[in-house]
Amino acid sequence: MPVLVHNMEWKIIKMGMTEEDRISQLPDHILTSMLSSLSIRQAVGTSVLSSRWRDLWIRSISTIDFHPDNLLDAREYDEELVNRVGKVQMLIISCKRLLNFILSGNQFLRQLPVDHKISKFRMNYPFRRNRYGLILDQWIHFAISRGVEELDVDLLSEGCFDYAGEHGDHVEAYDFPCDGVVPYSTTSDASNIVLPSLKRLRLNGCIFSQNNLSNFFYFTSLEAIDLQHIDFQSGATVETLLPHCPNLKWLSFYQCTHIFHIHIRRPLTTRLKYLSVKSCFDVNEIEIDGVELATFEYSGNLPTFSFKEVPLLLNVYFCILFGTSVGDGTVLSLPKLLETLPQLEKLLLRCCCDIEAEELPERLPTFQNLKHLAVIEIKVLSRNLMWIAQVLKASPLLQNLELHLDSYDYQEEPKEIERPPRVPLDHLKEVVISGAHGYLSEIELAIYVLNNAVILERMTIDPYWRHYLGDGKWQYEDHQPEDLWTRARRDKWAKIGRQRVLDYLQQEVPPDVELIVL
């Protein structure tokens, strides 16, 4: 497939071949396993090595990833170079790039046998409905007809610059699901109808319309749907989607528009375990009734919540980004969310208000079964953290506390350590504070816990911040590239912050508590 293979890539592959060529003597299953870890361009490139390798790459392909890095020569479309040319030349390059992307994709698919099974198909390019949308229809149909189980269509990739798509007039988003998802026949007389076997669907940058949602009727095997930047148009609702997916267990919405209410109840769905609604600012009502939901994650404006007959809902992530009135915040809104969830065991609060301290409601509900509390503090100024002590008092069975801080460096005013009246924390065993600077607000809370936790076993103070990704997954700051600000903050921690924390806490820590200051 020469269009996908650059001469230099062929030379690099060839360099590894010796006259004896022991690699080619390996069994097919080992070679195909090796090839499966390569990109499309690299795998296809091995076909020119010898007759032994000609068709091996085809057998190794179970995942198809149509990304510009896999189908195009990056040197011909360097974005830095393109940005230096004029608008007309940029438009020409963008169109040429799109055509080459389509030609390479079509050429690749034509080489796959009719009976070739595909497990995952990923398309990453800014296609539009009126700009080769039919090509995407054909590719999706191809994947469906090859028994694909995971479909990932990303039309808003940051790595895919599209001058015409960004600046052109009358550009329309791509409709999904297209007619390519309907059942297909393995015989010419349509006597053998096969339903799609799709289990996981991820869409980014499409539109849903009422007419097209009827095609979800054929997605009876779907278990997970991840929708990002989806515009629900022409009366399309979540309720019209759910009945077509009886096996759905995982559902996520991120920055979707024109979703005004989310009603999830029997018999629309019965197996849903995970629901995430984040930054969907049109949502004003969420109702969950009679389903097996175990985890609910929400961030956005404050909607109306209703939970009925959800005994398995034990895990909640909650963040109010913009209150509907003055004083609305994450903690202040807790009673509205949790008054019908007495069984809650794990609560993750994300607080991002630009205020001195999180505002508390007049009456904080008692979390009778809460065992794990995680607080993510996003702030730009100094902030009092002692409001967390009030939440601890309202959580009599709490065993684990996490505090993840992300704050800018600031000049701290001298002050005395605040010591509220003692309230025994009878079950708290472990505390983790990440993103620590060594500020007095952090030290105050740590001292409060050390003085009140009756059976505390371990406290860990970590300068590296932890970022919550969703669905129980975290990203650690020490795994990310270090910028100047991060380096300066870590240097300050090493020189000042760490020792300051030790000086205060070593005077307070009981002998049977393990104090770890990283």
TrEMBL record:
This is At1g61320/AtMIF1 LRR domain-containing protein. It comes from Stephania yunnanensis. Transmembrane segments: none annotated. Residues 127-518 form the At1g61320/AtMIF1 LRR domain. It comes from the Eukaryota. The lineage of its organism: Eukaryota, Viridiplantae, Streptophyta, Embryophyta, Tracheophyta. It holds the Pfam family LRR_At1g61320_AtMIF1.
